[in-house]
Amino acid sequence: HGNVRETYRYLTDIFTTLVDLKWRFSLLVFILAYAVTWLFFGAGARKRQRYVEKDGKCNVQHGNVRETYRYLTDIFTTLVDLKWRFSLLVFILAYAVTWLFFGLIWWFIAYCRGDLDHLEDHAWTPCVNNLNGFVSAFLFSIETETTIGYGHRVITDKCPEGIVLLLLQAILGSMVNAFMVGCMFVKISQPNKRAETLVFSSHAVVSLRDDRLCLMFRVGDLRDSHIVEASIRAKLIKSKQTQEGEFIPLDQTDLSVGFETGDDRLFLVSPLIISHEIDERSPFWDVSRHQLEKDDFEIVVILEGMVEATGMTCQARSSYLADEVLWGHRFTPLLSLEEGFYEVDYGGFHQTVPVPTPACSARWGAGTDWGRLVQTGDTGLPWGCRAGLLGLGQTGDTGRVRLDQGTGAAGWVVGMLGALGQTGGTGAGGCGPHGRAPPMPLSCP
Fold first, then answer.
1. Percent of the chain with pLDDT over 70
2. DSSP secondary structure of 351-414
């Protein structure tokens, strides 16, 4: 059959069309149908709803707010928070309405006094000279409120009600000017856009730092002008069920980033790596690499400080989901010493490199002398903890890692971590069967 233009008719009987296909095309459609379905629903199942977007926007919408009058009690903040198109609309309407309102009153005074009936009577003294209708009254209102100066239209001293109205319009016009110009000034000078040049690393990492397991992320400031009194905070957002059975969908837990020691106060001249030590007070104390891969949480980081140019407080936010936390990685260095200055290469700001890191939780590795285990090949360590070290040992990584458990003893290990590599580990990482370990009396939770 040639020159069949109405091919859509084949789709109206899709079942017969598929049955009539040749076997190779039928098998192709069969495979594609399942593959597309799995990919579609699989992608939807893995998508996690963020509490805070990477750019700092909060995904919270307030619905069913009945007491809307509360917004009017703080009308200034309400106007400042409006989008620009609505702010400009309110700005224009505020002036237009006051001009029209007082223009109508000026016209009404002229109408009640009979000025409009004596326009050709030169012996008549009107309230406002040369006011001959609503348009001229509207123009006189604009001239009065904006103080651009009177021409032929000018108020006379024979109109006491006009003098009172002139005083009222002058006072009210000054208030409208102060309010609207203040709103626009605050909106223009808001430091929200300053946060656009405060950057966070796209991933957080978990690795050893001074023989302690730490969660780390990097922050930087792209501008030459600095953020004054900069401070950093981090919160863990995760669902929780209390002992009484109460379910808290978005429980917030503080992550210590140096508040006790003052390390949360930053001198943000060059990019800094913010570290959260995973100790017994940390919510990640019992989290291993395998648990991290299947856990569901969000880490919200908040950087605050004052803009050096304006003195206004600026806040930048970002977040990391569980799949954005890389276990066994650390950030690449950015700072290099040039002739007379330090240079920051922001091209590698988000880059990380794998490093030897135990795959078990910090609880299981607490008190472990990593340097001794690596140098002696001691297999007394649970397999899940060794797996993270072995995996990089077999790759030939030549990175230097200090493994002295903070004692200050010689514990720098360079290269392949061969001592543990000789134990025959597969380097798969994880705990128990996920690390593909042989049967062991000890394993990670």
1. 77
2. -EEE----SS-HHHHTT--HHHHHHHT---S-HHHHHHHHHHHTTT---EEE-STTS-SS-EEE
105 Cα distance to chain centroid: 51
CA-based torsion, 172, 173, 178, 179: positive or negative: positive
- CATH for 82-188? 1.10.287.70
**Looking at the predicted structure, is the pLDDT value of residue 391 above 60?**
no
In the chain, domain spans: 8-46, 82-188, 197-345, 362-435
Give CA 386 to chain center in angstroms.
36
Q: What is the mean pLDDT of the chain?
A: 79
**Contact 257/263 with Cβ under 8 angstroms?**
yes
Higher per-residue pLDDT: 121 or 325: 325
User: Bridge partners of 275?
Assistant: 216
- CA dist 149 and 140 (Å) reads 10
In the CATH hierarchy, which fold is given to the domain comprising 197-345? Immunoglobulin-like (2.60.40)
Per-residue pLDDT band for 390 (boundaries 50, 70, 90) equals very low
Give pLDDT, residue 119.
Answer: 82
Distances in Å between the alpha carbon of 248 and those of 47, 237, 241, 286, 287?
21, 10, 6, 21, 20
